[in-house]
């Protein structure tokens, strides 16, 4: 669907009289990120998934500013409008969780309840943001130099060696996940990192106290960094609760899908 400066690749699976869940994938993910969870949920809900700018088959038709979080968030709202979805549930993972939090704080009337998986409100200080931009620029340079599938596979191997991902490489479907990630375009991923990365996104820390939507914060037991971040979010953000998920690092819905689906079902059915 073409929406002003975007050509969105999306999937809308509609079940009659069932509320919609909008899923937002993480960095290097795509429209298929939550397929296993959706298959387990079956016809209990309707589902909207999409490739975010810089990922999958979605095309940015405007300038670089349309990779940014404010413009991407407005585009997501425009997509909901086109599909006549006045309100929905929302699930965001990592980068998608940062975007989901931005949506909740700027368009609260559009969402019933929200799950933020391994998400953050960005960085609180200018010094932290500048340091992160410097680091992401270095990562972006590596992405732009990738010209072969072997080179991309090496990049992904290094990426998932980060401490936040815990023991993800031991997962029986790890190789398939990496294969799915490799369908992205490294040059487009660089643009996403440079214009919607943690360092350049608007910091949302000061806005957390304004939240009025019921939030469920998820962090994996092996992901100490995001346990710390989400503990702080829970302390500042009313109507929020934090759950630490066993046997998972950063990518909870992949590493512990059954528990993730159980929690999602219970949290949304309480509405």
Task: Describe the fold and architecture.
- The chain is α/β, with parallel strands linked by helices and 271 residues long.
- Helix 8 links the parallel strand 9 and strand 10.
- Helix 1 packs across helix 10, helix 2 crosses helix 3 and helix 4 runs antiparallel to helix 7.
- The model has no long low-confidence stretch (mean pLDDT 97).
Produce the secondary structure layout.
Blueprint: E1 2-3, E2 6-7, E3 10-13, E4 20-24, H1 35-41, E5 46-50, E6 59-60, H2 69-82, E7 88-93, H3 95-106, E8 111-117, H4 126-144, H5 149-159, H6 174-181, H7 186-196, E9 214-220, H8 224-236, E10 240-245, H9 252-255, H10 257-269
Parallel strand pairs: 4-5, 4-7, 7-8, 8-9, 9-10
Antiparallel strand pairs: 1-2, 2-6, 3-5
Helix pairs in contact: 1-10, 2-3, 4-7
Features:
10 helices; 7-stranded mixed sheet; 3-stranded antiparallel sheet; alpha/beta
